[in-house]
Fold this sequence. Notes:
With 389 residues, the chain is an alpha/beta fold. The chain is built from 14 helices and 12 strands. β10 and β11 form a beta hairpin. α9 (186-197) runs parallel beside α11. The N and C termini lie far apart (60 Å).
Amino acid sequence: MPTTYEMRPAIWADIRPEQWQDWHWQQQNRLRSVEALEAVVALSDAERAAFAASSEAFRVAITPHYATLMEASCDPAGPTRCPIRLQALPHPGELVEYAFELDDPLAEEAHMPVPGITHRYPDRVLFYASHNCPMYCRHCTRKRKVSDPTTAASRTQIAQGLDYIRRTKTVRDVLVSGGDPLTLSDARLGEILHGLREIEHVEVIRLGTRNPVTLPQRITPEFCEMLRGVRPLYLHTHFNHPRELGEDAARALRMLLDAGCVLGNQMVLLKGVNDDPETVLELNRKLLIHGCRPYYMLQCDMARGITHFRTPLSTGLRIVEYLRGRIGGMGIPDFVVDLPGGGGKIELSPDYIIDRKPCEIEGVIGEQITFQNWAGETFEFVDLADSSS
Ligand SMILES: *Cc1c(COP(=O)(O)O)cnc(C)c1O
Ligand code: SF4
């Protein structure tokens, strides 16, 4: 597989490999304006209009690395079908408002005991370490905060968060998230992770980051050295499409594995990006090749301005059903809906029971259940009644 450096568009022809590999260079050269974008890809009229109208509400920033993964051409008359573009470029759908859309779909603000911590389940918390990201995903569920410079997590806020976890003994599992925590320097992030490691009741530390996808250059040997000091660390990343897992991302995952991270992927189901079973199968195969387990396939939630990405629940169920039988269980993520209003996550799975009737066989009372397997064949199973009742 070629690296994005080898595939880079003409405007970066003079860039040296060590510049491209430098994540600061990638950050500084992010595409943020229509003019910058048009030097790299052709925009349709609809995309240009959407950019003008929606970039105010949710900033645009695309790393040269991620921009290189986009299809350069675009049919000016037709809708864009590139799964990378759809995640990176404003879409006219962002401007359409629906009454059911919510600013804070998961009621994360309502469950904040201190600023920057969402404590919903007894044993685990979400800890927001930064509100910035190298790229702003158009489907982001935290649009209300992410990319808004006025909501940046301050040093005091992080100290207060650590303090809350320290004094809340029921917290066993901390998910450091954002925004993207890797926007912080190694030193800052190291302080947080080491701080957590020193808290006796914190058994599990997780780091949620999309950097392996949007800015794999951020995964440096120095960064990995820091992570090695807090291992085992569970790292949740966010690949949505097989094309995102190229040579550079694969290298980043390899380095993270070497540093003692346990890798998991949280995919978001997005219309036009990955809402077909073949795409998800290919993505999950690739993830397993690179040591990253598909953990969740998240239903796109009810956040404002992302309704054009939403698929019916039946799409997710159909995908899970398709995966079963074509890839081992490790390649099948839980299909999860994060309930609006802070209900938490619930997983949905296909119903493999097609019939059930009471039965009595040689004095044993139970139920005769008819299952249908992944291949559509049916099988009978006798389920015993609970003898204790
Ligand atoms: C998703 C989430 C977690 C972590 O949940 P897991 O299902 O354990 O991955 C924790 N807190 C909040 C508020 C969440 O939304
Ligand atoms: S990386 Fe995550 S937090 Fe940042 S814009 Fe994308 S989805 Fe939102």
